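Weekly structure sync, notes
Attendees: PL (lead), two postdocs, one rotation student
Agenda item 3: pending single-chain targets
PL asked that the sequence for the first pending target be pasted directly into the notes so everyone works from the same version. It is reproduced below exactly as submitted, 400 residues in total.
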Amino acid sequence: MNVFILNAGSSSLKYQLMNPVTKNVLAVGICERIGIDGVLKHEFGDGQELKIDVSMPTHKEAIELVLRTLTDGEGKVIDSIDDIEAIGHRAVHGGEEFASSVMVTEKVIETMKKLIPLAPLHNPANIMGMEICQELMPGKPNVAVFDTAFHQTMPDYAYMYALPYDQYTKHGIRKYGFHGTSHFFVSNEARGMLDKKHNTRIIVCHLGNGSSVSAVLNGKCIDTSMGLTPVQGLMMGTRAGDVGAGAISFMMSQEGMTINETLDLMNKKSGILGISGKSSDLREVLDGMQEGDDRCRLAVDMVAYNIKKYVGSYVAALDGVDALCFTGGIGENSALIREIVCAGLDGMGLNIDPTKNNKRSNKARDIATNSSAARIFVIPTNEEYVIASDTYKIVSGLEK
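Predicted structure, written out during the meeting:
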């Protein structure tokens, strides 16, 4: 089964064409600057690349261009749209309504529209992608795979905020968590690497421009760092992470900032960028630290310290740990961050092997010492495979 995987953003559109049974990826690409001028970057075959500069006034033109590129011309990988048997959509926020992936129906779309206040930047674009695919490929099944679904197994005492209870009952204000497809994939891979499907205590650190940590007990999430929105939790590329409400209100009063200005600052101008003053890209900040830039050093120390705090708290929540996993662009590629995070965690049974840690590989691997009581894994994530696999199972009737 060929599954067309779609991740629709406000001005971009990421896609893959994959067979989830064989795990064969036929093509991968992105449409950028939708509504501005437009560029398509398309990868196919044995590392071949194609770039097309073309006007994309809306997401509809972008998806039409992708489908033409997949079926015709230099970037062709299938004979016709008929070779696409299903469409799997990344859906950011499912609230409490969706604890698993679902077939897209009118009722599902209406429910997602009601959840737009929880994800005003993401859900409208996700919904748009679904409706356009229904229009362009009528009759083909569409499946929504929610970032929040994996975290719906959290107990109430973990996801509730200590606000008046009616803020939860009236407005759904609680922790939801994100990056769920990545946390699911990596924790499941870790269980396989442990060769242990039961009584597993796994901590997953998904570290990239957006970062989150989860505590996974026996394959079920019991806590995660992101909250109502993705700004809570770890310090990230441009997001502030955990900041006290008093500090936010004081900053607003001192600067005369509106709520929207404050959210823009906390989401787009804070984190690694805000502290370093150099970049949101940790690689550039690590270079700056090596050159003696003290603000870059501070940003790196803060990133690692924040991760370590969450790891320690989740060891407590899990009553121990069998595996600590690193994934995402930073988690998979930054040996220094892994080293700093794991330094001093010997008492928790986590002992990193410097030689294994510094050996580069694009495959899942164990970087703990042989004598470490718990394992430390680096596992490349594959969120697209989760979306394709869920789509295949639902469309094939394997998940009822």
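Discussion points:
- The chain has 15 helices and 14 strands.
- Residues 238 and 269 are 5 Å apart (CA to CA).
Action: rotation student to compare against the earlier draft before next sync.
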